[in-house]
Amino acid sequence: REKKHIQELSHQADRLKQLNEYLVHSDETERKMMASDLHDSVVQTLAMGISRTKNLMESDDPARPDQIRAIQAILEQAVREIRTLIYKLSPPILDDFDIDIAIGALIEEINAREKTAYRYINQVTDPIPLPHALKVTLYRAVNELLTNIRKHARTPNASIQLWFSDPDICLQVEDAGAGMDVQALKPSKDHGFGLYSLSERIQNFGGTLTITSTPGKGTKILLTAPVNQRGSNIHE
Predict the structure, then answer these.
(1) Looking at the domain that runs over 93-226, which CATH code has it been given?
(2) Which residues are paired to 119 by β-bridges?
């Protein structure tokens, strides 16, 4: 069984390597966050497993079966942590479905989990072939913006709209919550860095992020990016 978990770790590590292209083009803030996640979870878990294995090899302790079971539990935890990180980097749904379907499924999952009432308006009528890295960015943008709404807007309601306006794919997230002073918005641990980071990521695709907001009157965030990415900074 332990061998099976080691093989699973190897398989998941291969998937992480396949996602390296996306990480290479991610902005510095995002890279630091992912490095921190890796260090705080998988790296420490595997280090613990290695340490336990070394101790076991050097020991004649009759409790070896219990120690082996403990190592198995550590390897199982490492597999779960790697799967979680892979999902954060590139949700599997993006491999099988177009971005409009994937975003719809994400919103349904968030509504069910958080007891929110986010409304999805999908105006994409035909499949739009997008580079995988752009699909990941848009998908994660929805997740991050809805997280911001839950934390800062103080409203369970929001609308998410997706449409194609040649040559751009357009994503708009709007709420009628607390709003903010856009002119005074500065990078902060709680709010600003996330929006600045998202703006930089969408700019990598030749796109734009526009914030419209007034204190007490809600916030509207519009992301646009050209579907044709031949001239962008991102390459598949």
Answers:
(1) 3.30.565.10
(2) 159
CA–CA distance, 122 with 15 (Å, rounded to integer): 31
Q: 145 vs 138, 155, 159, 172, CA distance in Å?
A: 10, 13, 11, 10
Distance CA 89, CA 23 (A): 8
Q: What amino acid is encoded at 53 in this protein? A: T
d(CA 187, CA 229): 28
The type of residue at 70 is A
Structure tokens at 122: 């999908």
Instruction: Give a three-class secondary structure readout of 163-180.
Output: EEECCEEEEEEEECCCCC
Q: By the 8 A CB rule, do 219 and 211 touch?
A: yes
**pLDDT tens-place string over residues 32-46:** 666 666 666 676 777
**pLDDT digit string, tens, across residues 212-225:** 988 888 999 999 99
Number of residues in the chain: 236
